[in-house]
Amino acid sequence: MKMQTIRLHTKSPSTVLCGAGALDAAAEYLKGKDALIVTDTNVDRLYAPLIAEKFPAAQVFAVPAGERNKNKKTLFLILDEMLRSHLHRSSFVVALGGGVVGDMAGLAAALYMRGTRLVQIPTTLLAQVDSSVGGKTAIDYNGVKNVIGAFYQPERVFCDPLFLKTLPRREIKCGLGEIIKTGLLDAAIGDKIAQNRGRMHDLGFLQELAADCIRFKAHVVEQDETESSGLRKCLNMGHTTGHALELLCGRRSHGEYVLIGMWLESYIAEEEEICSREYAEQVRSLISVAEPKIPSFPNAREGVKYALLDKKNEGKSNVSLILPKARGEYAELILPAEKYEKYLERL
Amino acid sequence: MKMQTIRLHTKSPSTVLCGAGALDAAAEYLKGKDALIVTDTNVDRLYAPLIAEKFPAAQVFAVPAGERNKNKKTLFLILDEMLRSHLHRSSFVVALGGGVVGDMAGLAAALYMRGTRLVQIPTTLLAQVDSSVGGKTAIDYNGVKNVIGAFYQPERVFCDPLFLKTLPRREIKCGLGEIIKTGLLDAAIGDKIAQNRGRMHDLGFLQELAADCIRFKAHVVEQDETESSGLRKCLNMGHTTGHALELLCGRRSHGEYVLIGMWLESYIAEEEEICSREYAEQVRSLISVAEPKIPSFPNAREGVKYALLDKKNEGKSNVSLILPKARGEYAELILPAEKYEKYLERL
Question: ipTM greater than 0.95, yes or no?
Answer without folding.
Answer: no
